[in-house]
């Protein structure tokens, strides 16, 4: 099962405004900002505003309105950034084997180059 949410994680601090981020989008359900260590010409993180550790507890327990709002926000961020054509990659790491480092749900948006094979 998903670990309890830890309000001291770095993205919780960003949501509370305790540490800065390079924001690209915000609405009632989501915040998007540039990754501090970009792995593509565009590397944006989109996070829900609710307290969710990962896709696991989010998909299992979030109200439908929060799930819809978050999914919509990811699409808005990609369109606003101009990456629908020629395309982009979304990635969510879940838990230890997923390589998740920050225990607040986030979707990576990679764009601006051809990403190649899925795990390349
Ligand atoms: P994960 O491995 O958990 O899926 O990805 C965490 C991501 O958060 C990494 O790509 C890392 O560079 C990014 N990151 C970690 N700390 C910060 C921070 O303080 N600010 C920003 N903007 N990104 C961060």
Automatic annotation (TrEMBL):
<dbReference type="InterPro" id="IPR011146">
    <property type="entry name" value="HIT-like"/>
</dbReference>
<feature type="active site" description="Tele-AMP-histidine intermediate">
    <location>
        <position position="106"/>
    </location>
</feature>
<dbReference type="InterPro" id="IPR019808">
    <property type="entry name" value="Histidine_triad_CS"/>
</dbReference>
<dbReference type="GO" id="GO:0016787">
    <property type="term" value="F:hydrolase activity"/>
</dbReference>
<feature type="domain" description="HIT">
    <location>
        <begin position="10"/>
        <end position="120"/>
    </location>
</feature>
<dbReference type="InterPro" id="IPR001310">
    <property type="entry name" value="Histidine_triad_HIT"/>
</dbReference>
<protein>
    <submittedName>
        <fullName>Diadenosine tetraphosphate (Ap4A) HIT family hydrolase</fullName>
    </submittedName>
</protein>
<dbReference type="InterPro" id="IPR036265">
    <property type="entry name" value="HIT-like_sf"/>
</dbReference>
<dbReference type="Pfam" id="PF01230">
    <property type="entry name" value="HIT"/>
</dbReference>
<feature type="short sequence motif" description="Histidine triad motif">
    <location>
        <begin position="104"/>
        <end position="108"/>
    </location>
</feature>
<keyword id="KW-0378">Hydrolase</keyword>
């Amino acid at each position: 099962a998903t670990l309890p949410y830890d309000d001291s994680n770095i993205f919780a601090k960003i949501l509370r405004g305790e540490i800065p981020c390079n924001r690209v989008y915000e609405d009632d359900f989501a915040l998007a900002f540039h990754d501090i260590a970009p792995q593509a010409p565009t590397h944006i993180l989109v996070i829900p505003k609710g307290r969710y550790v990962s896709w696991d507890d989010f998909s299992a327990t979030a109200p439908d309105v929060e799930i819809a709002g978050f999914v919509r926000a990811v699409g808005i961020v990609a369109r606003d950034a101009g990456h629908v054509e020629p395309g982009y990659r979304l990635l969510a790491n879940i838990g230890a084997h997923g390589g998740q480092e920050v225990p607040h749900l986030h979707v990576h948006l990679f764009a601006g180059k051809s990403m190649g094979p899925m795990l390349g």
